[in-house]
Amino acid sequence: MKTPPELDSLAGADVVVIGGGFGGLSTACYLADAGADVTLLEKNEQLGGRASRLEVDGFRFDMGPSWYLMPDVFERFFAYFDHEPADYYDLTRLDPHYRIFFKDGDRVDMVPDLEQNRAVFESYEPGAGEQFDRYLEKSRENYEVGMEHFVYEDRSSLSDFLDWNVAKNARGLSLIGSMQDHVEQYFEHPKLQQIMQYTLVFLGGAPNNTPALYNLMSHVDFNMGVYYPENGLGGVVDGIVELGEELGIDFQTAAPVSEIKGRQGAFAVRTEDGREWFPDYVVSDADYRHTEMELLDEQKRQYDADYWDSRTYAPSAFLLYLGVEGDVDPLEHHTLVLPTDWDEHFERIFDNPEWPEDPAYYLCVPSETDDSVAPEGHSNLFALVPIAAGIEDTPEIREEFRDLVLDDIAENTGVELRDRIVVEESFCVSDFAERYNSTQGTALGLAHTLRQTALFRPPHRSSAVDGLYFTGAFTTPGIGVPMCLISGELTAESMAEQAG
User: Residue 407 above 70 pLDDT?
Assistant: First the structure.
């Protein structure tokens, strides 16, 4: 795999990083290690961006990401600084990886043992066990080639894809067609197709609009495993922050940035409380549209409002954080509840935006693995329902939908929660917009459609302002905690190349 970047040309530079999500934290660490003087300004009261934590009455919730996938990316990140994840947090491999309740009464577990998973596939469709092996073989190939040549390489122009070495390595990759088309080549049974496609939610897409290349996520799921980090994803944030402090990063929380002025070597970054910084470089891990449309003068923007309005945004989410008396068996740490036909739900996200009537959703119960997230005798649970970005979000709608979700959980998993809830908080479209300055209240960023993948995503380096860079989920390689960690590396590399 490609060697991480040499960043010596940034030694001595003064850099302000705006936003403390995984992209901002990663970029800041690479720059600080190179000898840059780094200040990170975070709008909210805690670091981590969408990986914030909610603590109420002895319950601790990961507010955003809760799946620890692609452990090789975390290992590579920490190895660059002569560390390993275990220096900062322990990992537990989950068994099962997750449980699925289908709404026709069927239930299935996906586990670390591939033989058991193969048998499950065969039980639904004769020959599906062999197809399972073939699918994972293709998924592994896409992952290994894709990561080395297309994820850890920032190919930001068409000429990058016309290179012979790129063309050679791209041969055989599933670059054409949608995930739906690809999965249908292997499996006819709709439940097997859903099992291979549920990870698209992590990419902010749907089966019919996500490129087939992302079948690599099945290698991540089945071959690499699903883990739980000590203290949840917030514990991973703590580990990276601890690393950043060791590297000398100055972390400033409760510091919402109000404007960015100037250019390379002569920037002025101001916060809403009137404080100012005068760095050589600025890196934004804030929402890309918010940065351009709200923090920069009009003549300093790469894109106008029409561009941003024309983008396809990943879903927002309705989140319900629940502290519950007693246990919530038979729910597992990661639980999916899926209609046997989820097309209508995806249509209500991307085609005809409205609240779903028969939702597909995710339940996270970290108290199944970690006793520290709930008081004794209680369970920690959150429900996440993907919904359309920009959809109307009022207290009345939330209350009605909350009742629908609780009824659906009881009906399809057998777990009645209503009379046992002792802590309850919700988070939805307007909260994403307010807390994270998120465009249309998207929970993730730009969706991974064919027209918003690789060189079709906004660049790391601004074409309008010398010395201004971007990192995080709007840039390459895209959405998800591991991808944002890698985006930090790519941003730092881009800065070093320009500085050199």
Answer: yes
